[in-house]
Design goal:
mainly alpha; single chain; 3 helices
Length: about 60
């Protein structure tokens, strides 16, 4: 419910101040990029600990 209220308020603010949309999208894309980079870093760190070729094949897929 809180998420819905936040989205409604964000929608109203975007109607009142349209450049806000570009800030919201830019922030979302930056956060998404940070999450993807951190997941990739974590997977590479974990991959070094496995010497089993079956697990290596699984991570490559």
């Amino acid at each position: 419910m809180l998420g819905g209220i936040i989205l409604i308020i964000a929608g109203i603010l975007i109607i009142i101040y349209p450049p806000l949309l570009s800030h919201i999208v830019a922030t979302f894309l930056i956060l998404l990029g940070i999450i993807i980079v951190s997941i990739a870093y974590h997977n590479r760190k974990i991959r070094r600990h496995y010497d089993n070729p079956v697990i290596e094949l699984f991570f490559r897929l």
